[in-house]
């Protein structure tokens, strides 16, 4: 079992920044990819960014490229999502998820690849 806890969400004005954190605990001895996803009211959950176990590989949704940065802390069980130049359309609940399936790194964005999910943190961007 892997437990994931997100934090760092909040209310920010358009153009502002937030840094989300995802802390993993439990069966963290295995390597795993961490992904960030978001879900706005009435919308489907969508991929935002992902990072490999080593932190050497990252991939972003087009909506996140150039504005968001995903990274791992010195402790491999912490993953950050730095979000800059936030827009009202970034408003959503943000979730981190772990893919512990041992898959080779790829740029797929399937929600079904992820077997553990956090409860999410709300991000609200006002105009």
Description:
There is one protein chain. β4 and β5 form a beta hairpin. The protein starts with a strand and ends with a strand. The mean pLDDT is 93. It is globular and about 40 Å long. Helices cover 0% and strands 49% of the residues. It has 127 residues and is an all-beta fold.
Write the layout of secondary structure elements.
Elements: E1 2-7, E2 10-13, E3 18-26, E4 33-39, E5 46-51, E6 58-60, E7 68-72, E8 78-83, E9 92-99, E10 116-117, E11 121-126
Parallel strand pairs: 2-11
Antiparallel strand pairs: 1-3, 3-8, 4-5, 4-9, 5-6, 7-8, 9-10, 9-11
Key attributes of the depicted protein:
single chain, 127 residues, mainly beta, seven-stranded mixed beta sheet, four-stranded antiparallel beta sheet, 11 strands, 0% helix, globular
